[in-house]
Amino acid sequence: GKVRAPTHIISTISDDRGEEPCYGGVPMSSIVEQGLGVGDVISLLWFKRSLPRYCTRFIEICVLLCADHGPCVSGAHNSIVTARAGKDLVSCLVSGLLTIGPRFGGAVDDAARYFKDAYDRGLTPYEFVESMKKKGIRVPGIGHRIKRGDNRDKRVELLQLYARDNFPSVKYMEYAVQVETYTLSKANNLVLNVDGAIGTLFLDLLAGSGMFTKPEIDEIVEIGYLNGLFVLARSIGLIGHTFDQKRLKQPLYRHPWEDVLYTK
Ligand code: ACO
Ligand code: LMR
């Protein structure tokens, strides 16, 4: 009989062997003809299914809102300094991307994990926040360097508004709002940040869309797909900052002595 040679790679998301490449089984011509957008392509390649329009629009709004946040944040700063050192586009981009992590932009997955666990276990906001404090873990998705209770993050408000108008259920988001009410009673900078908003709203998207089984949701949260949204989005801004510096022919950056506390 036929002997099937073992393969070295298994791949399930795309196929380029036919006349035209397919994303999740959907040919590219169909993607273009149907007028699909980047949210649909993310659905096919990351989640391996076509999601309803309100979900793909939500994904696109996350990308639009997280594309950039000015030159002063960690990622943009790194890209700017790298561009001014004369490096190529990819070096500038990855130098910025490498700052994305638990403090900056990369708290989306952990926010989803911790808020889901707390909500599913029926913890009150007080019990959740105080148990995190006891463990010495900052609540992912809470806190911001410049946003405050009286100067909220517009991106969070826009995402919440969209979800309230379009999602069948926003139970995780409502829980996050209650947690924020409690953390704001402790300190004015402990707002629900954009990572926390995306993390908890994506839980609502996954649970409320009826497109995912419970084990699939657990797997998405466990593997950690959601930081990918911030990484993807912020790449747009980091590339923009790189072009900006090169266009402006900015010289090699050197940090001023006056801004360093030299001490023993
Ligand atoms: N949970 C509990 N307490 C907190 C939190 C939090 N998430 N954030 C700040 N605090 C409290 C702590 O008491 C902290 O004291 P500590 O240093 O003894 O732990 C104190 O506030 C320090 O407050 P700030 O100086 O204002 O916070 P800082 O500017 O150092 O940090 C940051 C801001 C990194 C965003 C922080 O709030 C944090 O770690 N949040 C969790 C991670 C997160 O969600 N990051 C994403 C931010 S949004 C974005 O990057 C796009
Ligand atoms: C961002 O999106 O980069 C910001 O929320 C971080 C910041 O400190 O402004």
UniProtKB/TrEMBL annotation:
Source taxon at top rank: Eukaryota
Compartments where located: Cytoplasm, Cytosol
Oligomeric form and interacting partners: Heterooctamer of 4 alpha and 4 beta chains.
Protein family (similarity comment): Belongs to the succinate/malate CoA ligase alpha subunit family.
Protein name: ATP citrate synthase
Section covered of the full-length record: 345 to 608 of 608
